Amino acid sequence: MSTGAGAKPKRMPRAVREQQMMDAAVRTFGQRGYRAASMDEIAELAGVSKPLVYLYLNSKEELFTACIRREAAALVAAVRAAVRPGLPADRQLWAGLTAFFTHTAENPDGWAILHRQARTHGEPFAAEVAAMRDDIAAFVTELIGAAAREAQQDPSFGDRDVAGLAQALVGAAESLAGWANETPEVGAKEAAATLMNFAWTGLGNLMDGQRWAPNAPNR
């Protein structure tokens, strides 16, 4: 049914409008950087006025923080959703890593915000990313801990070992995602397999009690 020439256009719901602005902000911050991006650019890309952007999100700093939180939550959710309980520990880690690399590849602007932009502009942005990293590291700690309990070969393999390995694995995944996103021929599964080959083989030896030491034979 036609609305007629004098009918007012339907007002867009606030949640939809905010989503449009956030999408535009993520794209602009991700491609231009926090300092170079302007609220004018974001408003134009979102198809709204700059005063409306300020009305919804108050300031550039608050908008950038909101982008960090949204992209961080989406990444953590993607990783957690991919890991099905009941699978062997290595399959769980493989699923989580594949989801991580798939998400970062499919959302390059969001990953640029998390991996580069937020970390280089100090507080409070770096703290937001650190919170996301802690969430992922805690989840990986659970997975590695489960693997250690499955193996039960090395009684000296304790919580501190698990936490340290989780931090190392998350750091490696972040660096590898940055490289993979800049290397078009490297897909998510290849990146995940690279890290599994690097980390899981070593973890398997460690679970079997084969620890590296500088004073071990042939070292």
Characterization of the model:
Helix content is 73%, strand content 0%. The chain has nine helices and no strands. The chain has helices at 14-32, 39-46, 50-57, 60-82, 89-106, 108-120, 125-151, 159-181, 188-207.
How large a portion of the residues is in β-strands, by DSSP E?
under 5%
Largest sheet: none
Indicate the percent of residues in helices: over 70%
Kindly report the oligomeric state of this protein: single chain
Number of strands: 0
Low-confidence stretches: none
Gyration radius from CA atoms, angstroms: 22 Å
Q: What is the chain-wise order of helices and strands?
A: HHHHHHHHH
Label the overall shape.
elongated
Secondary structure layout:
Layout: H1 14-32, H2 39-46, H3 50-57, H4 60-82, H5 89-106, H6 108-120, H7 125-151, H8 159-181, H9 188-207
Helix pairs in contact: 1-2, 1-4, 1-6, 4-5, 4-6, 4-7, 5-7, 5-8, 5-9, 6-7, 7-8, 8-9
Keywords, please?
single chain, 9 helices, mainly alpha, 0% strand
Summary of the model, kept short:
The chain has 219 residues and is mainly α.
